[in-house]
Amino acid sequence: MAREQCIDPRDTVRSGYDTIADEYLARVSGSRSGDGVRTQVEALVAELTSRLPEGGDALDLGCGAGVPFTQLLSRHFRVTGVDFSSRQLELARQNVSGAKFLHADMTKLELPSDSFDVVTAFFSMIHVPRDGHEQLMLNIASWLRPGGLFLASFGKRGAAEYWEEDWLGAPMFWSYHDPGHAQELAENAGLKVDRAWVETIEEGIDGPETFFWLLASK
Q1: Which residue in 81, 106, 149, 150 is a FRET match for 189, CA 20 to 30 A apart?
Q2: What domains are there in the chain, each with its CATH number?
Q3: Helix, strand or coil for residue 103?
Q4: Per-residue DSSP letters for 3-54?
């Protein structure tokens, strides 16, 4: 029987990140990939802060161990980080003392409308099954306050869902819409796409990595 017929991909992602949390943190914060990822995220957070007031509320979906994404956001915003990997959240609470963290599946979150100035999803929506992207985008739009911003990375390749048997030491699931459809989902949710671009990090988590990025406003 095919893997997708017998295993919930969310379980694969959750257990996978529990297993590789320390290795992933070492890579994202270490010399191999830390500089490339941090430089990219610093530029993105600077763009957010140039458009939003200091001290606003930020929601970081799939916050992982908090480095460098939640950590950088917390310098400018009151951050709520969300992840469903227990080990990732354990590390995040150690790494980002000023943030609030929720142990939850981002696709099942129930949050008040108009409660955040910015919602981010750094390398996390690429693990959400494609059939959940539309509703998640609608939820994100509802959580944002008027004038709020949404920033996320998506896959560059065409629509695909696939597993890797061994990614950094554990099975992992990936899920992409093609960039045009990802942008369409944001617009259908009531967001205005301010910028959409493809960017490559030469020293990513697992070698050169290319993602489609979307910055949208409500």
Answers
A1: 81
A2: 3-47+55-217 (3.40.50.150)
A3: strand
A4: HHHHS-HHHHHHHHHHHHHHHHHHHHHSTTTHHHHHHHHHHHHHHHHHHS-T
Q: Consecutive 10-residue runs of the chain (218 residues): their mean pLDDT?
A: 65 97 87 66 93 96 95 96 97 95 97 98 95 97 98 86 94 93 97 95 77 96
Pairwise CA distance, residues 27 & 36, whole Å: 11
Q: Torsions phi, psi of 31, nearest 5? A: -70, -25
Joined together, the tokens standing for residue 129 give 């099954």
| CA 41 and chain centroid, separation | 12
Give whole-number Cα distances, 189 to 49, 94, 121, 131, 146, in Å: 23, 35, 16, 15, 13
Going by their DSSP bridges, the two strands 170-176 and 160-167 should be labelled as: antiparallel
CB atoms within 10 A of CB 140: 27
Is 65 in a helix, a strand, or coil?
A: coil
pTM of the model: 0.93
Query: Which letter does DSSP use for residue 130 in this model?
Result: G
